[in-house]
Design brief:
single chain, 160 residues, five-stranded mixed β-sheet, 5 strands, globular
Length: 160
């Protein structure tokens, strides 16, 4: 784990603690990397509830209440699914705010319109959900690290 990610996780923890917010994560392509970064920070038990690693479409539906029809319509790597993942993490936890990641880390998995490196994010709190789609460059490890860092930076912007 890079120092940049640990620094971001520390800032996230401080921001959540200052606002008395508790976080849940819903991760696909990062495989729990965001949750790992968060729980590296001492005291994270005060502001982190849980992380869902929903790698399969079935787990997104079963654990996060993402409608199978939505996945069929837009694909699991879509802003629509990322938003529902974040909302599902929120409604299936004790958290106040949630983030999600779903993407194609590579080296395979690209589909027309969604090259390797495509990642969709969701951040949700209350009735507000924000989503974003980016395309990162690099190998699988690099895409996953960039995704974790961007998810944490996005959360900071979302709660501030």
């Amino acid at each position: 784990m890079t120092n940049d990610i640990l620094d971001l996780a520390t800032k996230v923890g401080q921001a959540l603690e200052a606002r008395r917010l508790v976080l849940a994560t819903a991760e696909s392509c990062t495989g729990g990397g965001v949750s790992q970064a968060i729980t590296e920070i001492p005291g994270s038990t005060g502001w982190f509830d849980c992380g869902f690693v929903t790698y399969s479409n079935a787990s997104k539906t079963e654990l996060l209440d993402v409608p199978a029809a939505l996945i069929a319509q837009f694909g699991s790597v879509s802003e629509e699914v990322a938003g529902k993942m974040a909302e599902g993490a929120l409604s299936n936890s004790m958290a106040d705010v949630a983030l999600s990641t779903t993407g194609i880390a590579g080296p395979t998995g690209a589909v027309p319109g969604k090259p390797v490196g495509t990642v969709c994010f969701g951040w949700s709190r209350g009735d507000t959900t924000y989503t974003e789609r980016l395309v990162f460059q690099g190998d699988r490890r690099s895409v996953r690290e960039q995704t974790v860092a961007h998810a944490l930076r996005g959360l900071l912007r979302f709660i501030e």
